[in-house]
Amino acid sequence: MSTRLASGGRLIDRHTTRTFTFNGKRLSGHDGDTLASALLANGQTLMGRSFKYHRPRGVVASGAEEPNALMGIGEGGRFEPNQRATTTEIFDGLTAKTQNHWPSLDFDVGAVNAMVPRLLPAGFYYKTFMFPRPFWKHVFEPVIRKSAGLGAAPKDRDADRYEHFYAHVDLLVAGGGIAGLQAALRAGQAGLRVLLVEQTAHWGGRAPVDGVEIGGKPAEEWINDTLQALEGMENVCIRTRSMASGVYDHGYALVYERLTDHAPEMGGPRHRLWRVRAGQIITATGAIERPLSFAGNDIPGVMLASALRDYVVNWGISPGDRTVIVTNNDDAYRTALVLHEAGLAVPAIVDARPSATGDLPQAAREAGIRVLTGTGIAEVKGRKSVTGVVLCAQAGEGAATDEIACEAVAMSGGWSPVVHLWSHCGGKLIWDAERSHFRPDAARAPTGHDGKPFVITAGAASGAETAGDVLADAKTAAGAAADALGRSLPDLDAAGTNDPHEEPMAPVWIMPQGAGPAKRMKMWLDYQNDVKVSDVRLAAQEGYESVEHTKRYTTLGMATDQGKLSNINGLATLAGALNAEIPAVGTTTFRPPYTPISMGAIAGEARDATFQPLRRTPIHDYHEDQGAYMEPVGHWRRPYTYPKTGESHAESVHREVLATRNSLGLLDASTLGKILVKGPDAGKFLDMLYTNMMSTLKPGKCRYGLMCNENGFLMDDGVVARLDEDTFLVHTTSGGAEHTHAHMEDWLQCEWWDWKVHTVNITEQFAQIAVVGPNARKLLEKMGGDMDLSAEALPFMGWAEGRIGGFDARVFRISFSGELSYEIAIPASQGRAFWDAALEAGGTWDITPYGTEALHIMRAEKGFIMIGDETDGTVIPQDLGLNWAISKKKEDYMGKRAQARSHMTDPTRWKLVGLETTDGSTLPDGAYCIAAGTNANNQRNVQGRVTSTYHSPTLGRGIAMGLVLNGPDRMGDIVEFNKVDGGTVAAKIVDPVFFDKDGEKQNV
Amino acid sequence: MRRYSAFAIAREAARYHQGWERAWASPEPKRAYDVIIVGAGGHGLATAFYLGKNFGITNVAVIEKGWLGGGNTGRNTTIIRSNYLQDPSAAIYEKARSLYETMSQDLNYNVMFSPRGVLMLAQTEHEVRGYTRTAHANALQGVKTEFVGPERVKEIVPIINIDGPRYPVLGALWQARAGTARHDAVAWGYARACSDMGMDIIQKCEVTGVNTENGAVTGVETTRGTIGCKKLGVVVAGHSSVLAEMAGFRLPMESVALQALVSEPIKPCMDCVVMANTVHGYMSQSDKGEMVIGGGTDGYNNYTQRGSFHHIEETVRALVETFPMISRLKMLRQWGGIVDVTGDRSPIISKAPVEGMFFNCGWGTGGFKAIPGSGWGFAELMARGYSPLTAEFGLNRFREGRFIDESVAAGVAH
Ligand SMILES: Cc1cc2nc3c(=O)[nH]c(=O)nc-3n(C[C@H](O)[C@H](O)[C@H](O)COP(=O)(O)OP(=O)(O)OC[C@H]3O[C@@H](n4cnc5c(N)ncnc54)[C@H](O)[C@@H]3O)c2cc1C
After folding, report:
1. Residue of A484, A440, A400 lying closest to A192 (CA atoms)
2. B154 vs chain A: nearest CA distance in angstroms?
């Protein structure tokens, strides 16, 4: 059983006690403990269940690569599944629950799977569950889904906050081991702006655990000195609990900082996502040890040798009284020595190599530890915990030679550099045969916008093994980064180290070499997803030979650790099965993030009310105070209608329309797009953008215009006012301002860059208020000012500037309702005051604010088209009877050539008409006009569709607009429209102008 | 071909699964074939399958530069639906959806088609109207859909936030028989069936040139030599313009990165697919338990199979807003594929300007769902010269302006 040693543990503070609960049990640990170390200290080795077979699992690693010890942590709005116990720091009140079992961790019914794993090999689900057909959806899939998955889904809204940071630095250094520290120090000394990040809570990485000495001092001292130096540099920023999670094009990188996971009572944001733009990036991300494949290598108590060493040295943990070491390299002997020093028994070191003669094996022998070379593990004994190992000759098929009782097994299959960040943006790897690992190929680095490399690796991440090599490599890396940034480094020697001589590892992947199928079925490659050596071999046998096929067929490397422990072993197994070399098999793609990052952090501050920026018109508060029903229009929210107490939306819309038609309405039209187009070529530019002629417009006048895209389709419409010879004010639809502005800039910047035109989106600089109705002029006259608003002085489609009621105003005489109407632009800061003044003065005429729905109805009554209703990206102005707005004189305009294509000029295109149901009802929205018969694909033939449909309060009946085959030539015809329930409605084709056909109301 | 079944598994278990045969052969290319299909993605393989099954044409090679199914077929978020607006689209997608229903049985390979339903949320008045229109169109196209209110949406997906505050859910277009399938299995199942019919699937073989004589195709140059053919079907998604250039013409198409991501796996919490176009994101839960998430394409052309992070951010933001509980899940992996996008966002299924050469491409962000229907129609077009399913998708529609524009109905077309 694991327990806490009486002394030791460089990261824990034994003077503190922290209590937490684990599956409801109260346990305690110390500051500095991870959840995994604290559980081990409490003798809890069983920490989870595997994904597929629900096998009992213990912790196998000590850091981000952990595949097994995943838990649900927290409660309510702070519950989060799938957190690694190895990277979770404990605090008072932490609650942890194991996952993927029922009813309990110790007794899991799902584990029956484990009794029949032979029936569930890789990809078994592709070969069965096919009959009877409905069973997949109703029986098999639900069962599979239930037993798959890991942690429980969070139920509540997240109680925490998240934020984003931006950093622009010369150099980002990822990884705070001695390589990262060294590189950051050098770069800092050279004056570079450096950001150094480390994913754990402490600096120095492996060196202090591995007994490294630098410059004659323990690594710990060198680390502290270096940190002190870095902290003293203004140009250097260092962060712990911050993981570089991804490297993207052009030196963009993400850093995921966990601010309060270890101390929720601190308050403030929980995670911070740093969006870093770096000139150069050094990845000093170290290396990860590989497991070995032997039967039973997944039983709780089998751990990576380095992890086991970490638990002893960093957290003062005894993994059990007796630990057997199994290895193919010298490094694992360090673990034996550490255990020995801690007074724990190491009954044997099982070394697959024929001989072990390096300094470390020598030291082990001197310490009296038995070293068995040429030996492998035939089988690990135990179910929920290790009870012993059966040994065999590595070269054989697994005949038992000896059995040793033990409580833990420390395994080492060699080390793989962490190449993820290097690879994210295209860095390539090479296979290092001597060390049996893929390492970054410095000659094929990720390149930036200038084609030059921007990622450099340092230390173990480059493949360096000894501390001496690591420091030298980091120094070189810092030099290369400085060079790339045009700086030079002070030439200081790297401090000397005390590295023992290590003999090469042997590329041993499975134990024993000749293990048969029964044994291979018990050798785990991917612990979490339960992928075994036999599965990878099966994939190869069945033709899933590409490494990507193998991965997908077996799910190797697809678990939450993304194969950090299993990838290379899996490749080696596949290569073995195919009789190929490992590099010929290749790797799968490394994708961000390095370890999973919270969605909360990715979303940042954007949620609820601040999910997207809210654009508010100057009159926004009024609408809200009135209890208007608001609808989103782009980032704006516009009042749809202002219901009075007890009124339904339909009733209030009805009231608003009639009040406006009969007396006086007021509309907040501020969201209308307003773009200033200025310059000697402004007229020529607008002639190209609009179908009609704008250059001939006289200052003081307005003109309604249509804008098409290159394909000829109508994209926006609005009124253009000429302010002076050089200046036009373009009004766009509310939703279309940004898009139209971008469209203008696209053409100006990419095609007509030599035209002298400047555009500015001034939408938010003005409030725009429409005063509408027979009493509109009377209201403005009552408000006073210096403007002559008479029909003669300011006729329809004219505009003027002046003062109204003490406000600076630009008044456009335009109408979207068919009423006498003034659209008044007021500087934004004065908008609300003007609105209030108009409301007050309008009391006489029962002035009525109206919303978007009344606006839509009134325009439909007049047969005015609405972008987005009559148009949908497939409609050309000619379809809408708008030929009058298309200049015949202009040589060109956007969309002209497209509109000449055969289908565009086809006389059978559907055309705009008005529609009236025969019974006065309102046509269903979106209905299609049906025709006889069906087409070649058995679909009902159609001959048109409804584009807008309303109940008209003015006319007291349903009115609609639509596009119908030969519509304008079929006035008076009755056609049928479909209903979703299968029925139909009959409607008569009529003129689309339903009200005041001659425009008498607006021209007064 | 030895059939797959529970009994076969039991039989093999007894001998440690040593007896399973290869799912598909790995042959050397022959000198010539009747038909060569370039691209062993879903569409290419389905085309080969139906050439054999419906027209008895089996002297066929499918040539793939990488590993079969390794293009977008193996990278997509597997949404299958047919609630499209325009007639030609609805026809081919509905054909595909109905073929998906029996695909596992037809191929004797479980592709895990899961008709769990797709909800397309309406979060603006404008969207409500748009989806109401689609529902009307679908009713006439024989596609079963329904516009449902917010309460029903909440009933179908309890983890959804329908209250906003920024974009309250106003309703949704619901297609109950839409769903998802296992993407790799679709490619593998077709490959196995094609191989079984005697077709050659040649992987790690890149087409580098198109050979023609008197304006008619005679074969292709590949990294494994010249291979002759009478008819050539090019089904290479994002690389279609490259192949067109080899044959001497240009396609009206752009290639952009489309990204997706998954969360860590959790226990089942969502039983359908939800697409939210206003906020721009969609999500479903895989059988493994991961939340599968996607959004829009990058705003610039590229071939790198990775995209910019800001898109991921936008998508995740949208989904955290729509499903607040995912805020405490973690993103496990993000990736991208290069999608082939045409001017009207609809595919090109067409004879090429070169005699004997055919193109099937432009499926862009949403072609996984079309695989069997597209294979069916394209095989018919290649074998007979005409298919009602593909007739409207010809190349000349761009010259004539006869677009099939689906962006009308949905901003995100997956
Ligand atoms: C992130 C993402 C999410 C998506 N989500 C969905 C979704 O939810 N629902 C949906 O319906 N669709 C979705 N799609 C779209 C869908 O994936 C594609 O439309 C579909 O898979 C395309 O299939 P394909 O067979 O045409 O292309 P691919 O699968 O890309 O196959 C083309 C093949 O051609 C090969 N090739 C290219 N050039 C050559 C050459 N010179 N010689 C030989 N071989 C060559 C390629 O290697 C590739 O294997 C998504 C796409 C992406 C990228």
Report:
1. A484
2. 14
Give nearest CA residue, ligand 1 atom 48: B71
Please give the distance, rounded to the nearest whole angstrom, from the Cα atom of residue B81 to the centre of ligand 1.
Answer: 17
Probe target for ligand 1 pocket from B258, B345, B368, B371, with the most ligand atoms within 8 Å of CB: B368
| pLDDT bracket for residue A115 (50, 70, 90) | low
Nearest CA to ligand 1 atom 13: B366
CA distance B220 to B37: 10
Residue of A137, A553, A874 with shortest CB distance to B403 = A874
ipTM metric: 0.97
Q: Which of A285, A339, A278 is nearest to A311 (CA)?
A: A339
Say which DSSP state B149 is in.
-
pLDDT of residue B406: 82
A414 in Cβ contact with A290 (< 8 Å): yes
Confidence of residue B410 (pLDDT cuts 50, 70, 90): very low
Inter-chain contact A936–B113, Cβ cutoff 8 Å?
Answer: no
**In this predicted model, what pLDDT tens digit does every residue of A533-558 receive, in sequence order?**
999 999 999 999 999 999 999 999 99
Q: Is CATH 3.30.450.40 what the domain over A320-411 is classified as, yes or no? A: no
B contact residues 4-23, partner A, Cβ 8 Å cutoff = 4-6, 8-10, 12-13, 16-18, 20-23
Among A488, A468, A455, CA closest to A182: A468
In angstroms, what separates the C-alpha of B34 from chain A's closest C-alpha? Answer: 25
CATH number of A907-1004: 2.40.30.110
Chain A / chain B CB contacts < 8 angstroms: 336
What distance in Å separates the CA atoms of residue B42 and residue B375, rounded to the nearest whole number?
8
The three state secondary structure string of A814-839 is: CCCCCCCEEEEEEEHHHHHHHHHHHH
Q: Which two tokens stand for residue A51?
A: 């994904």
Q: Do strands A349-351 and A25-31 pair parallel, antiparallel, or not at all (unpaired)?
A: unpaired
Q: How far is it, in rounded angstroms, from Cα A623 to Cα A615?
A: 13
Ligand 1 pocket check for B233: Cβ under 6 Å: no
B101-123 mean pLDDT: 97
Residues of B in contact with A614 (CB under 8 A): 166
Of B10, B287, B405, the CB nearest to A141: B287
* B110, B280, B330: best to mutate for the A interface, most A CBs within 10 A: B330
pLDDT tens profile B365-407 = 999 999 999 999 999 999 999 999 999 999 999 999 999 988 7
Class (C level, CATH) for A3-117: alpha beta
Decide whether A620-671+765-858 matches A907-1004 in CATH topology.
no
pLDDT at A838: 98
Domains and CATH numbers, chain B: 20-109+182-252+344-400 (3.50.50.60), 118-179+255-342 (3.30.9.10)
DSSP string of A960-997, one letter each residue:
EEEEEETGGG-TT-EEEEE-TTS-EEEEEEE-S--S-T
How close A909 gets to chain B, by Cα (Å)?
A: 11
Residue A767: strand pairing partners:
A826
- Asked if A248 and B309 come within 8 Å (Cβ–Cβ), the reply is yes
Helix (H) or strand (E) holding B152, with range, is helix B150-156
**Do β-strands B330-342 and B348-351 pair in parallel, antiparallel, or remain unpaired?**
unpaired
- pTM greater than 0.80: yes
Q: Give domain limits for chain A.
A: 3-117, 162-287+417-484, 320-411, 620-671+765-858, 673-763, 907-1004
Residue having the nearest C-alpha atom to atom 3 of ligand 1:
B76
Q: Do A611 and B321 touch (CB under 8 A)?
A: yes
Look up tokens 């908008």; give the residue: A831
**What is the rounded CA–CA span in Å between residue B196 and residue B202?**
14
Nearest CA of chain A to the CA of B21: how many Å?
Answer: 6
